[in-house]
Amino acid sequence: xxxTITPYITEQEIRTRTKELAEQIKKDYExxxxxxxxxxxxxxxxxxxxxxALETEDVTIDFMVVSxxxxxxxxxxxxxxxxxxxxxxxxxxxxxxxxILDSGNTLSTIIExxxxxxxxxxxxxxxxxxxxxxxxxxxxxxxxxxxxxxxVVGYGLDYSEKHRNLPYIGVVxxxxx
Length: 177
Ligand code: IMP
Ligand code: MG
Description:
Layout: E1 2-9, H1 11-29, E2 34-39, H2 44-53, E3 59-69, E4 78-83, E5 93-101, H3 105-115, E6 121-129, E7 142-146, E8 152-153, E9 169-175
Parallel strand pairs: 2-3, 2-5, 5-6, 6-7
Antiparallel strand pairs: 1-9, 3-4, 8-9
Inosinic acid binds at residues 42, 75, 99-107, 151-153, 157.
């Protein structure tokens, strides 16, 4: 099956919204050290833009790689950490930076794992939110854009590992040939 990609959220819209989110985060954390945690690979583009928009002294970053077992395109929430964080997060204020919150299955498991390590606080910032697809309740403190149930690519998001390099977000439309 072929597909086309239709532009949906422009580079400028992403930049403007990222700046707004960074200002809100800066205000909320009142100068406290923030540890930004991203789950590879999708969130990496958003993370690098968000951290540069964050005008706060003490920002550090770290990454996790997880694999989730599921059927087809649905994630199940059975998450295995394949690369863990490189720092001890006990007592830290951790902000998870995500690309998109879909069913919420993967993230809810990660939240449980990170909470069990004694963080001081744990919040989530997701560039995109598809609330219509949610099956597990996940507290989302910072949201870039709420989108309908469409498959999107670009700005880190992939379809079969491709299109992460698009500077904007596009909707994938499948065609017959
Ligand atoms: P879930 O919330 O556990 O269902 O999984 C969310 C993950 O699925 C995201 O971090 C993405 O990697 C992937 N995902 C969900 N929706 C899309 C989409 O529209 N485009 C690309 N990846 C998506
Ligand atoms: Mg992801």
